[in-house]
UniProtKB/TrEMBL annotation:
Organism: Elysia marginata
GO molecular function: GTPase activator activity; small GTPase binding
Coiled-coil segments: 90-117
Gene3D superfamilies registered for this protein in UniProt: putative rabgap domain of human tbc1 domain family member 14 like domains (1.10.8.270), Ypt/Rab-GAP domain of gyp1p, domain 1 (1.10.10.750), Ypt/Rab-GAP domain of gyp1p, domain 3 (1.10.472.80)
Keywords (A to Z) from UniProt: Coiled coil
UniProt-recorded name of the protein: TBC1 domain family member 2B-like
PANTHER family tied to this protein: RAB GTPASE-ACTIVATING PROTEIN 1-LIKE, TBC1 DOMAIN FAMILY MEMBER 2B
Domain Rab-GAP TBC: 272-468
InterPro entries: Rab-GAP-TBC_dom, Rab-GAP_TBC_sf, Rab_GAP_TBC_domain
Segment forming the signal sequence: none
Keyword set includes Transmembrane helix: no
Amino acid sequence: MQRVRSSVMSDSGTGESRVGMALFRRVRSCADMVSKTKVELAKVLNRQTTFQEILKQKDEIIEDMDGKLGSPHPAPLDGYDSKKRTSALTKEHHERVRVLQNQNRFLNEEVRRLAKLRGQEHGKMRVQDSKVRSLEADIEVWKLEYISLIQSSIRFTGTDTIDDAELYLFGGDRHKDRILELLCEARKINPSLPTYEYLASGEVHVDCYGFKHHFEDDGLLLHYLCQELSQHFLSQANTFEKHQKNWLLFLKQHSKNLLGPRKELKALVRAGIPDPHRKQMWRAFVMAKVEDIVLEKGPHYYRTLCNSVPDSPMAARYKKQISLDLMRTMPSNVKFSTAGSKGIMDLQDVLLAFCIHNSTIGYCQGMNFLVAMALLFMDAQDAFWTLVAVTERYHSPAYFDHNLLGAQADQSVLHDLMSEKLPDLTRHLDAIDIEISTVTLNWFLAIFFDAVPFQTVRKWVKAVSEGRDDMEDEPCPDRPVTACGDANISKVLVSLSLSDDRRKTCEEIATETSMSRTSVFRVLTNNATN
């Protein structure tokens, strides 16, 4: 019985197992069918969506074509189709509006982001531009300092003439090549600058003031080019441009009264009068001093004096001496280099006219330099009134008389100043029997015309604009009187700043700076009032 029962149970278990396997296979088959059905359904749905989009596009095309065909009244539809079509169009428009709104928000955000980035980039560019301008300004300053350093390399061989000076450049032709590169670069901005090849070939260069320059020594030629480059770099500096604008603004604001606010005008004049405005300003300064004389004598007074020269005994008295001094005034200037030049003729007319105007003073050597300086920037009549102002208003009546009492008094004052400020130098000059007035007298008579480089006209401008007292009250900030470089001048001034027991003699300074004794003496006396 047990065997039969176990056999029955075994068959029953086997049957259940088979039924379970069959059910499992069927479930699996159904699952596969469901998956396939879903895939097919998805494909159908995608196809339906595609067809709907195609239909929508077709409908849009049809509507567009209807509009183009001028069918303002489409074919009427029944109520159900019309509502369905309206509903579909409404949904479509809402969807389009939503998409466009999303696009608009996105684009606005992009615009704001790009605007922010652009602002940041502009800020960076402004900073970079500022740095570039600052670096360019530094480069220009370095160029000027380099050129000044080259200028300071000039040495004097022991004589008192500048023609015997030499320029020593260490490092072979390296510095020379750099100078020529800077000159080539500067000529792109200012073509009037001379070229090295032109001057080296023996040609004569005439500068903007009419002075002729000719060099046989290569070192002095390079030194002159350095001077020209220095002037060029100074004219390109930001401070120079600002100064030019300040002058233009001042002349515009005070066109009716050029001698306007005294303090502002004084600051502008001491910084330098630009060449285009020099004639206008010098004339204003001079006429302010002689306005009463001009009103008394009349506007044609100068021409009347010139017409009376042939019959004037005073003109005949000084004509010989004036004729001797004419060609010695500015022989290196094209305006005064030949006997028949306009500059020489105007110079003679002005000097002879003044002899008639002021018979007490007449003519003394030194006046020719004053008039020639004025003629470089003014006409003959204005130069005449300049001479009148200098001799009769800026100086005392006895300054230019036959005994030069006023000028001699200034030499005594200068000697006393040197005794106080430079006692060792004064004792040294007395010991070697050098009379200071033999060197400095003409400086005072001609207002330092032939004692400083011509570009250094600020002292002359101070004399014309501020008068004698202001000119002597403050030293001119321009270059010293000699052609030596800044380094040598610095050594001289350093020696002056030492205490009395450490001050050096003229010979010691000359030995250290390679300058001649007289050159050192001129520097010392020029800075005595400091």
